[in-house]
Design goal:
This protein is of the alpha/beta class and 433 residues long. Helix content is 40%, strand content 14%. The protein is built from 14 helices and 15 strands. The protein is elongated and about 75 Å long. The structure holds nicotinamide-adenine-dinucleotide. Nicotinamide-adenine-dinucleotide binds next to helix 5.
Length: 433
C-alpha cells in the first residue's frame, strides 16, 4: 500500500486534495500544482470555489495570473462536493480553528471535515491535518474516527500532523520556503508525509509524533504572545515612568545575542496569536496544569485597545476636548501591515470602545473597504488632507506601507501613534504608545 503511494508521490502522479481554501489552504493548493500534482480543493463556500475555478485569487500571496493558468490547464480545481475525496491519494485539512466565546477550542470545523473524509477513506490514502490545534487532536479526535471505518493506520492508510506557519503578506517567507515540521502517527506515516512535502517545499523537519508537531506550533505562537505581552506591559510601565519604550527596545536590540526585539502595539489580531495559546492552556488545564504565562499575556494584550482609547482621551484632554463628540479617524483596521485580514483586529475594538464613549468614529484602510462586527458597520473613508483636518484625533493603528504619514502629520491636530511610524519625530501633536 505504502509502495504505491510512495510511487505516486515520487512521480507526482498522486492526486492531492486540500480541504479549506483560505489563507493557508489556497497557497498550499497552488504549491501542489506548481510541483506538478493534480490539486483539488474542497470548500463549503461555493463562492470561493467559483473564484478558484475562474482563476480569481482572494488571497494576496496567490497571484491570480498563476491561479488562472493552473485552473485553465486543469491542474487546479475546486468544489463543494466531498465525493472527490474518493479519488484523492492525499488530503490536507486546512479548516479554521477559532475559540468559542468561552475561550475554549472550537474544533467543530475539523470534526466536520473528518466526518466527510471517514466514509471515503480508502487504502493507500494519506491524511494530514494542518489546522493549528491542541496537542493530542490528531490521535485523540481524528484517528478513532478514521479507524472506525475498519482500516488500520500505518498499514492501510497514513495520518500525520504538520503545522502551517505561513505569514500572510510576508514578502520573503512563503509556503514554499518556510520549513515544514511533520509528525506522523507511525514512522511510516511520518516518512510518507515527508515525502509528500518534499516534492513541493524546500525543507521538511520530522518530529517523533503528531503530538510533538502540534505542540511545536503552539510553542511558536505562545512565544510571540508572551513576548508581545511583556513588551506591551513595558510600554505601559514606560508611559507611567515618562520613558520612550521604542527607544529602549531599539537600543536593547543592538545586543548581538540573547535578545530578540518585540514591539508594543494596540493589541493582538489575526486568526493565530490571540487564539492559539488558549488551545494549549485549555489542554494543559485538562491535565491539571495552569498555564500562567499564557493567561497573563492574554490579559495584558487584550487590554491594549482600552489603553489606546485611554491614550486618545488623554491626548484630547490636553486640547480641552472630550472623547464624547470628537471625530476620531483610525488609520488601518487590518490586524497587521499590508494585508486585508481584520479577524480579531484590535482596531475594531478601538473603534467600538471610542464609539461607545460617544466619539464619531471613521477609518481609512487601503485594503479593507468596509468592516462589519456585531456592534459596528462602517465603510472606509478616503485619506485626504480634508479628512485628516476634519478629525480631532488620528489614531495610527496599523502601519500599512502605502499610507502618506507625512501628509497626516502635516494636517492632523492630534495623532496617537500606536506603531511608531513617526519614529524619532519630535512633535507635541504626536502621542506615542
Ligand atoms: N491565517 C494564517 O496566517 C494562519 C497561519 C498559520 C496557521 N493557520 C491555521 O490554519 C488554519 C486555517 O486558517 P486560515 O487562516 O486559512 O482560515 P480561513 O478562514 O482563511 O480559511 C478556512 C477555509 O475553510 C473553509 N471551511 C470551513 N469549514 C469547512 C469544512 N468543514 N469543509 C471544507 N471547508 C471548510 C472556509 O470556508 C474557508 O474558506 C487554522 O487552524 C489557522 O489557525 C493560519
Amino acid at each position: 500500500m505504502s509502495m504505491s503511494l510512495e510511487q505516486k508521490l515520487s512521480d507526482r502522479s498522486a492526486h492531492l486534495g486540500v480541504i479549506g481554501l483560505g489563507y493557508v489552504g489556497l497557497p498550499l493548493l497552488v504549491e501542489f500544482a506548481r510541483a506538478g500534482f493534480k490539486a483539488i480543493g474542497v470548500d463549503v463556500d461555493p463562492a470561493r470555489c467559483a473564484k478558484v475555478n475562474d482563476g480569481v485569487s482572494y488571497v494576496k500571496d496567490v497571484p491570480s495570473k498563476e491561479l488562472s493558468a493552473f485552473a485553465r490547464e486543469g491542474r487546479i480545481r475546486a468544489t463543494t462536493d466531498f465525493e472527490v475525496l474518493r479519488e484523492m491519494d492525499g488530503v490536507n485539512i486546512c479548516v479554521p480553528t477559532p475559540l468559542r466565546k468561552s475561550r475554549d477550542p472550537d474544533v467543530s470545523y475539523i470534526v466536520a471535515a473528518v466526518d466527510e473524509i471517514a466514509p471515503r477513506l480508502h487504502p493507500g490514502q494519506i491524511i494530514i491535518l494542518e489546522s493549528t490545534t491542541y496537542p493530542g487532536t490528531t490521535e485523540e479526535l481524528i484517528l478513532p474516527k478514521l479507524e472506525a471505518e475498519g482500516l488500520t493506520v500505518g498499514r492501510d492508510f497514513y495520518l500525520a500532523f504538520s503545522p502551517e506557519r505561513v505569514d500572510p503578506g510576508n514578502p520573503v517567507y512563503q509556503t514554499r520556503n518556510i520549513p515544514k515540521v511533520v509528525g506522523g502517527v507511525t514512522p511510516e506515516c511520518t516518512r510518507l508525509a515527508m515525502l509528500l512535502y518534499k516534492q513541493c517545499l524546500d525543507t521538511v523537519v520530522p518530529v517523533s509524533s503528531t503530538r510533538t508537531a502540534e505542540m511545536v506550533k503552539l510553542l511558536e505562537n505562545t512565544f510571540r504572545s508572551v513576548n508581545i505581552g511583556l513588551v506591551n506591559e513595558l510600554a505601559l510601565m514606560s508611559d507611567k515612568m515618562g520613558m520612550d519604550v521604542w527607544e529602549i527596545i531599539d537600543a536593547a536590540a543592538t545586543k548581538p545575542f540573547g535578545f530578540m526585539p518585540f514591539y508594543p502595539g494596540p493589541g493582538l489580531g489575526g486568526h493565530c496569536i490571540p487564539v492559539d495559546p488558549f488551545y494549549l492552556s485549555w489542554k494543559a488545564r485538562a491535565s491539571g496544569f495552569e498555564a500562567r504565562f499564557i493567561e497573563l499575556a492574554g490579559q495584558v494584550n487584550s487590554q491594549m485597545p482600552y489603553y489606546v482609547a485611554a491614550r486618545v482621551a488623554r491626548a484630547l484632554n490636553g486640547e480641552k476636548k472630550a472623547v464624547n463628540g470628537s471625530r476620531i479617524l483610525v488609520v488601518g483596521v487590518a490586524y497587521k501591515a499590508d494585508i486585508d485580514d481584520v479577524r480579531e483586529s484590535p482596531s475594531l475594538d478601538i473603534l467600538e470602545i471610542l464609539r461607545g464613549q460617544g466619539a464619531e468614529v471613521s477609518y481609512h484602510d487601503p485594503y479593507v473597504p468596509q468592516v462589519r462586527t456585531d456592534h459596528l458597520s462602517l465603510a472606509g473613508q478616503p485619506l485626504t488632507a480634508e479628512s485628516v483636518k476634519r478629525a480631532d484625533c488620528v489614531v495610527v493603528a496599523t502601519a500599512h506601507s502605502g499610507i502618506d504619514y507625512d501628509m497626516i502629520l502635516q494636517h492632523a491636530p492630534l495623532i496617537v501613534d500606536t506603531r511608531n511610524v513617526y519614529k524619532g519625530r519630535r512633535d507635541p501633536r504626536i502621542a506615542r504608545l
